Amino acid sequence: MKKVLIALDYDPTAQKVAEQGYSLANSMKAEVTLLHIINDPAYYTTTDFSPIMGYGGYMNIDKFQPSLEALKAASHHFLEKAKHHLKDETILTAVKDGDTADTILKTAKEIHADVIVMGSHSRKWLENIVIGSVAKDVLNQTKIPLYIIPTKKLS
Questions:
Q1: CB of 108 closer than 8 Å to CB of 139
Q2: Could you tell me which of 13, 33, 3 has the C-alpha nearest to residue 120?
Q3: pLDDT band of 55, cuts 50, 70, 90
Q4: Based on CB atoms within 10 Å of each CB, which residue in 88, 125, 146, 155 is the most buried?
Q5: C-alpha–C-alpha distance, residues 21 and 130, integer Å
Q6: Which domains, from first to last, does the chain contain?
Q7: Helix (H, G, I), strand (E, B) or coil at 28
Q8: 129 pLDDT band (50/70/90 cuts)?
Q9: What is the pLDDT of residues 88-119, one digit of tens each?
């Protein structure tokens, strides 16, 4: 395995996904690409949105009408901070917009990823008890190995 794609979302658990995905890639001496997907710009304006990996750079964007360019710039900055946190400046980064599952799959194909790393929050109680909906969609459509990191704490 030579290339690992790590998909990071807006959830605070993104740090866990980044660290565990990077550890996997590092153990295989694989190239790492961190990916953040903007699939709903309006989400960044809601009270549900919280900073990722302690990153509050999104605060510089217009909370009432965020432009896609401003969100992409904030996301690029976030991924750069993630690279710094992982202490590896050779990590590649990509920010894309679109459907999350489709964009993960397209990006994995574009970069010839050997494995996709992502977290699963499992927000729908029964339907997604084992795996989150985006992770499930990626799993059902990919031929690339998928490393899913459970990020939701069970009560």
A1: no
A2: 13
A3: very low
A4: 146
A5: 19
A6: 3-150 (3.40.50.620)
A7: coil
A8: very low
A9: 999 999 999 999 999 999 999 999 999 999 99
Q: What is the pLDDT of residues 60-71, one digit of tens each?
A: 544 555 678 888
Mean pLDDT of the chain: 82
Show the tokens assigned to 151. Answer: 């990020």
Buried/exposed code over 19-47 (b: 16+ C-beta within 10 A; e: otherwise): bbbbebbeeeebbbbbbbbbbebeebbee
